[in-house]
Amino acid sequence: MTTQTLSLSGLRSDILALAAVGLIGLGIVFVAGHAQAGALHDAAHDVRHATGFPCH
Amino acid sequence: MFQKLLTSALFAGFAAGLIAALLQLAFVQPSLLRAELFESGTLTHFGSGPTPVPEIPFAIDPVRDALSVLFSALIYTGYAMLLVVAMSVAENRGARIDARTGLIWGVAGFVAVQLAPAFSLPPELPGSAAAEVGARQVWWFVTIAATGAGLALIAFGRSLWPALAGAVLILLPHLVGAPHHASYAGPVPPELAGLFASRALGVGLMAWAILGTIAGYVWSRGEAQ
């Protein structure tokens, strides 16, 4: 019983970790690659072109 | 788990981003700088006679190049996080994750994130004609998601039908079509645009191969501890 509860809560924290890391990754790609704010766009400009992001 | 995911992603993303930035500065930047001469109107290639290829002297622009390194490391770290999440889910379902399979993951990542969008929206030089950026970004995200899901169905589906569904998913965004410009307006010579597009894809493949290999390696080492 105890082991089952433990592994269940372990599974839940694994899913949370996966979701958290996935969301952070998406957030980084969105902000660094897609956000159109002027300064950010200029700073990331060359990398966006070189990695094939839609830039302008 | 959180720590294991982050460790693999940060190592792999930073290394791949750094190498991608150096390759970009060496092989892609000259085309970008030449294109800017045409974009700004300093040079034109329409009109009387051919335009000589402008010399781009080797020079380091500290701020601009440092920003390229920074953003390249950031973007590849973001990709690495998504890649290790997918790797971890696959491992839970019985897939083996190490440096060798990581290489395949990396190449598949390149196909999903760079090659598939480029199939209908080629990497653009500054000044190229293109449809409205918001629409292209939406198409870009949807295409990457569809291609990633399609590749997963082909790789992990246990019969012919999931693989066929995967192939359809991969083709679908291109059959629907990317948002496109209504006219040709780019001031940049086609020779330059062609070299830029193939170099951008080549650098992407190298960076993703490194990304997947390192992510797989660090992931499997984390297992051993």
| Uncertain stretches of chain A | none
Beta-strand proportion of chain B: under 5%
Report the C-alpha radius of gyration of chain B, rounded: 20 Å
Low-confidence stretches of chain B: none
Count the DSSP helices of chain B: 6
Seen as an oligomer or otherwise, the chain set is: heterodimer
Distance between the termini of chain B: 13 Å
Explain how this protein is built.
The complex is a heterodimer of chains A (56) and B (225). Chain A has a domain at 21-56. Helices cover 80% and strands 0% of the residues of chain A. Chain A has 2 helices and no strands. Chain A is rod-shaped. Chain B has 2 domains: 2-126 and 188-224, no CATH class; 131-180. Helices cover 74% and strands 0% of the residues of chain B. Chain B has 6 helices and no strands. Chain B has helices at residues 2-39, 62-92, 99-120, 133-156, 160-176, 190-224. The two termini of chain B are 13 Å apart. The relative contact order of chain B is 0.20. The mean pLDDT of chain B is 91. Classes of the chains: A mainly alpha (56), B mainly alpha (225). The A-B interface holds A 13-14, 16-18, 20-22, 24-29, 32-34, 36, 43-44, 46-56 and B 1-2, 5-6, 9, 20-21, 24, 28-29, 32, 64, 67-68, 70-72, 74-75, 77-82, 84-85, 88-89, 114, 117-118, 121-126, 130, 133, 136-137, 140, 200-201, 203-204.
Mind sketching the topology for me?
The complex is a heterodimer of chains A (56) and B (225).
Chain A: H1 2-33, H2 38-50
Chain B: H1 2-39, H2 62-92, H3 99-120, H4 133-156, H5 160-176, H6 190-224
Helix pairs in contact in B: 1-2, 1-6, 2-6, 3-4, 3-6, 4-5
Concise summary:
The complex is a heterodimer of chains A (56) and B (225). Chain A has 56 residues and is mostly helical.
